[in-house]
Amino acid sequence: MFAKIEHGPLMDRVYRHQRHFYDATRKYYLLGRDPMLAGLTPPTSGSILEIGCGTGRNLVLAGRAYPKTSLYGIDISNEMLATARKKIAAAGIGDRATLAYADAAKFEPEAILGRREFDRIFISYAVSMIPQWQAVMREAINHLTPGGALHVVDFGDLRDLPAFARRGLYKWLEWYHVTPRNDLFDVAGEIALAANAQAEIHRLYRGFAWISVIRRHA
Ligand SMILES: C[S@@+](CC[C@H](N)C(=O)[O-])C[C@H]1O[C@@H](n2cnc3c(N)ncnc32)[C@H](O)[C@@H]1O
């Protein structure tokens, strides 16, 4: 079913070696992930899905912060999933975590994770790497329980950086196949409106990181 994915091999190429030092280096510039996790506040025994879970760093922290929740993660890179599986086992949360290989742009959670709806879905620094990110966010809303929420954290518009620094950063991000989504809040607002849901916006670190939250009514 997933044999034709071309984005997957690309992500594997990007992360094959990087995954070994990914968490140690990314903590300096994938900002806003911890505030996003703190804001999840799922129901006590609720379910949490991360789309593009990478090394599993966020799922481990979510597992610690929300100790009775069920955790789910998907990623299009088998290399990243291998690291995530190890990290999750080492953190002792393997019994309540389910990981699967999937393309966020066309995945059926019920088929691969055994669950159709989640109390919280989050996407951390992956909308900037997924070409079909708008469709992924739109579809994620359909997989929220009533009262559930989608949290997205990613690069902001960097508008407070000096122009030369912004240009340099964009160039550097391009090498990693990362495109900041400057229209994230507009798109989230449109998605929320169409789904009769509530959109919230949070600008952090002078616009370096943005968090978008879309909450479904209970
Ligand atoms: C920059 S990393 C972020 C990892 C993690 N979410 C974090 O915050 O540390 C982006 C992740 O998204 C995954 N990814 C990219 N495109 C994807 C897609 N179409 N479907 C699922 N995962 C995808 C990549 O393989 C990678 O693991």
TrEMBL record:
Keywords: Methyltransferase, Transferase. The keyword Transferase applies. CDD domains: AdoMet_MTases (cd02440). GO terms for biological process: methylation. One of its GO terms (molecular function) is methyltransferase activity. InterPro entries: Methyltransf_25, Methyltransf_Superfamily, SAM-dependent_MTases_sf. Residues 48-148 form the Methyltransferase domain. PANTHER family: METHYLTRANSFERASE. This is Class I SAM-dependent methyltransferase.
